[in-house]
Amino acid sequence: MGLGLLIFLFVVVVVLFSSFVTVKQGTIAVVTIFGKYRRQLSPGLSFKIPLIEVIHSRISIQNRSVELSFQAVTQDQANVYFKAMLLYSVLNHDEETIKNVAFKFVDATNLMQALIRTIEGSIRAYVATQNQANVLAQRNEIVMHVKEQIDKVLESWGYHLQDLQLNDITFDEEIMRSMSRVVASNNLKAAAENEGQALLITKTKGAEADGNAIKIAAAAEREAAQLRGQGIALFRAEVAHGMTKAAQEMEEANLDISVILFTMWTESIKHFSENSDGNVIFLDGSTEGMNKTMKEMMSMQLAKPKDS
After folding, report:
1. For the ranges 134-143, 233-242, 286-295, which has the lowest average pLDDT?
2. What is the pLDDT of residues 153-166, one digit of tens each?
3. Eight-state DSSP code of residue 107
4. The pLDDT of residue 307
5. Distance CA 78, CA 271 (A)
6. Model pLDDT, residue 174
7. d(CA 162, CA 62)
8. What is the pLDDT of residue 282?
9. What is the DSSP-derived secondary structure letter of residue 26?
C-alpha cells in the first residue's frame, strides 16, 4: 500500500504540474480537445484541463520577414531578376483569425511556400504588362499592385502584408550593358548640348561686348572730332577777329595793311622752323621772293572788295 500510494501521489503531482502552461510574450497558444479547437491562451501563466486539453500550436503575433529571389519576363521579352524582402504578421488577435492561422495550413513550411508563390505570381503578372524600360521606374507601383492583389487572400489566411521592399532589380548582362551605353550616350549628348549653350553664350556676350566697345569708341571719336572742329572754328574766328581789329587800328594810324601780312608771313616761317621736327622745308627767302609773296597777298586783299 505504501508504494502504491507513492505512485498515485507522483502521478497526481505530474498531472497537476502539467495543468499549468506558460505562454511567452508575443505568442498565443491554441488549445484543442480531442483534435477540435477549444480556446486560445494569452501570454503568461495559464491553466488547462490535464490529459484533455492539448496545446495544438503556438502562434507568434510578432512581425516576421522573409527574403525572396525570383525572375519575371516583361512585355518585350526581357528577363528581370528581383530580390525582395517581405514583412508580414498575424492580422489581429480575434478568435477567427487565430483559427485561420492555426488550421489553414498543415505547417509553417506550406504557409511560407504559398505566401512566396502568391507574391511572385502577382509581381510576374504586373511585370508582364510592362516594357523593360519602365520596370526600374515603377518600383512603388509594383509594391502597391502586389498589396492590392494579395491583401484579401492573406486576410483569409489570417495574415496581413506589412511591407514589401524590392531591394534589387536587375536584367540580363547584355541588357545591362546596353542600358549603360544608353545612359552614357545620353550623358554625352547632354554634355555636348551644355557645352554648345555655354559656347554660344560666351560668343554672344563677346560679340555684344565688342559691339558696345565699338559704339563707345565711335561716340568718343565723334565727340572728339566735334570738339576739334569747334576748337578750329573758334581759333579761326579769333584769328579773323584779331586781324580785323588790327587792320582797323592800322587804318586809323594811316599805316599800310600789308605790314600785317608781312608779319603773318614771318611768323609762319618762324613756326615752320620751330616745329618742323627735322623735316626740310624749301622757302624762297630772297627779296624778290618776298616781294612776289607780298604782291600776291596784297592782290588777294584788294580782290575781296571787288568780289563783295
Report:
1. 286-295
2. 888 889 988 888 88
3. S
4. 46
5. 99
6. 74
7. 11
8. 66
9. T
Helix-strand-coil percent breakdown of the chain, rounded to 5?
A: 60, 20, 15
For 50, phi and psi rounded to 5 degrees?
-65, 145
pLDDT tens per residue across span 271-298 = 767 766 666 666 666 667 767 776 776 6
Q: How far apart are CA 177 and CA 193, in angstroms?
A: 24
Residue 139 CA to residue 161 CA, distance in Å, equals 17
State the pTM of this model: 0.52
Q: Which helix (H) or strand (E) holds 121?
A: helix 108-127
Q: Strand runs (DSSP E) across 48-78, as ranges?
A: 53-60, 64-73
User: What gap in Å lies between CA 140 and CA 165, rounded to an integer?
Assistant: 9
Contact present, 155 and 91 (Cβ < 8 Å): yes
CA distances (Å), origin 254, targets 66, 258, 304: 133, 12, 20
Q: Please count the helices (runs of H) and the strands (runs of E) in the chain.
A: 8, 8
26: which 3 cell numbers? 508575443
Q: Looking at residue 281, what is its pLDDT?
A: 66
Among 252, 91, 82, 87, residue whose Cα is nearest residue 158: 91
Q: What is the pLDDT of residues 115-136, one digit of tens each?
A: 888 888 888 888 888 888 788 7
Are the C-beta atoms of residues 65 and 85 closer than 8 Å to each other?
Answer: yes
- The residue among 294 and 111 whose pLDDT is bigger is 111
Contacts of 127 (CB under 8 A, 6+ apart): 72, 73, 74, 80, 135, 142
Instruction: Give backbone dihedrals phi and psi of 108, rounded to 5 degrees, phi first.
Output: -65, -30
- Check: CB of residue 207 under 8 Å from CB of residue 125: no
